[in-house]
Amino acid sequence: MTAPTPSHLLTRAAPLAATSWDPTARTLEVVFSTGATVERADARGPYNERLSLDQDWAPFIGAPVLNAHRRGDVSDVLGHVISARTIGGEARATIKLSRRPDVEVVVQDILDGHLRGVSVGYAVEAWRDDSDPATGLRTRTATRWMPVELSIVPIPADRGSIIRSEPLPDVLPNTEPQPTNPPPAPIITPPAPAIAERAAVNIQIRAIAQVAGLDQAWTDGQIDAGATVEAARTAASTVETRMAANPTLRTTRAEIIADHNDPEIRIRAAGEAVYARFTPGHQISERARQYAGLTTLDLARESLRLRSYATTGLAPAAIIERALHTTSDFPLLLGEAINRTLREAYRAAPSGLKRVGRQTTAKDFRDKHRLALSEAPRLEKVNEAGEFKSGTLAETEESYRLATYGRIIGISRQAIINDDLSAFADLARRMGQAAAATEAQLLVDLLVSNAGNGPQMSDGKPLFDAAHKNKIGSGGSAPGVASLTTGRTALRRQVGLTGELIEMEPKFILIPPELETSTEQVLTTLHPTKADDVNPFSSKLSLVVEPRFTDAKRWYLTADPGVSDGLEYAYLEGQEGVQLETQYGFEVDGIRVRARLDFGAGFVDWRSWHQNPGA
Fold it and tell me: Does residue 56 lie within any of the structural domains?
């Protein structure tokens, strides 16, 4: 079994009583699961969870034994698991406890019968869903799951999880006498209304713990004890009062985990499920699968439930309005779905000119200055006992700046209530394509500015100029062996700021659509019958077609932007590409989504480009 990437960590606990303690080896025999039913809840409501015990327990060996699932300090580790197996419908483990003095207290409480339960923390990798024929309640069976830790707890959830009173053999013969210890109490599955009521109470207990700043161990203790909302609130108040009366200096420990209940992860998962509704080819992730098939009304109700807002008896329109107006995640998850749609369309329509440019970022909207240095000076011979001479680098500077572009689109309240988001998704796709087209047109406008000669450079001359030796002044021609030879030669003859050859090599040929077919013929690999028919440019240049060029004859050769300066385009740092912001409108009855693009471009050198006016 490979290590999981769990959406969240689950725990199960159970009662125990033990004299299987081996003081020499410091080991205990425990039953950490019988696969018993445990009540849980998700976006679809309450369900019964069961664990399949047909597992490979090898990865469990070496897992830590914790104090009630606490993991904030090394002292929370009581020992580790040294073996695990399945016998007679029970998942058993042998654990070895530490020799630390503080662990001796735990051992004594186990021997005295004060601590009577173990709990397993585990991550589920695969589920099987069906319904309980007796109650009609959903049942989810974890067919593949991985235990990651074992805890000694005050009160268990799986009543069969125990610290054994005596070690049992791995194989039980049929003639084994009845155990003297009483068997575990039978599991009684409460009716569906009781399960739903308990699930709702557990949600409120978690909310109380979050507001009070209490840890997961406190929350698990309240839930395992079956506490009511009032009892949990009183207990939380008592803890807060005690903490206020006895302030202590604390060391803060930051921990980043992927938690199923993390609002950001939940928003992304629900947004992906909505996105999949109007994107049939999308392969939905396991995390988002629980939201698949939910309507916008279902998602609004779930968003309110997770924020502890009651929706019983509310009309659909009222649920939608409350989800939009409160601090629920509902507007954000709709925005996430639109964001996915828009970005997919944006990425699917890239500019041809972006292929021949270099992407970078800018910290702000002030002029972005690009310093260009000359080639390093040649090394000179140093005679015996001679002196090394200093060299210098010449420099020049070009600049450009970012600008902001954007539009706002909206989803009406009526469309949300009607669960009709397809038209809005289509509009989002069009906005994504429009954002890509905006970038493409800005790059084309930059290149063909100044009557086709390009932007003015720092030397006062346009990008393409006779003084730059990167332009055919007259007598241009369409792409062919002769004209490509002229362009390639011009690039290879380019010199740096101090007159040193820099040997540019063309990589791309940039053309309008009118030249596409003829250029493809020029670049196609042929099998000539004589030497004069050999095409020296076949498979050496990449063809880039820009349909926004209005001149049907002009074309360009460019060097590789990865190794030479030339066209450069930039986004605001941390805001690469089109960005979306979602807001519930007051003036407009619905959700407004703003698409914003912070983008700029400029040429930082002319030596890597060559222009031919064509014929």
Answer: yes
Is residue 116 within 8 Å of residue 15, measured between CB atoms? yes
For residue range 120-140, list pLDDT tens digits in order.
888 888 888 888 777 778 888
Model confidence at 165, in pLDDT bands (50, 70, 90)?
very low
Please enumerate in sequence order all residues whose Cβ is within 8 A of that of 138, keeping only pairs 6 or more positions apart, or say none. 44, 45, 46, 47, 48, 129, 130, 131, 132
What band does 586 get if pLDDT is binned at 50, 70 and 90? Answer: low
Paired with 138 in beta bridges are 131
pLDDT at 439: 93
CA distance 13 to 31: 10
How many structural domains is the chain composed of? 2
Write the Ramachandran bin of 418: left for phi over 0, alpha for psi from -120 to 50, otherwise beta: alpha
Amino acid letter, residue 577: G
Query: How many other CB atoms are found less than 10 A from the CB of residue 599?
Result: 23
Given a contact cutoff of 8 angstroms between Cβ atoms, the answer to whether 544 and 355 are in contact is: yes
Is 262 within a domain? Answer: no
How do 403-412 and 506-511 pair as beta strands?
A: unpaired
What DSSP designation does 184 have?
P
Whether residue 381 is contained in a domain is answered as: no
Among the three residues 168, 198, 227, which one is the final residue of a domain in this structure? 168
The domain in which residue 555 lies consists of 346-375+392-615
Q: Which pLDDT does position 187 carry in this prediction? A: 43
CATH number at residue 468: 3.90.1690.10
- 18, 106 contact by CB (below 8 A): no
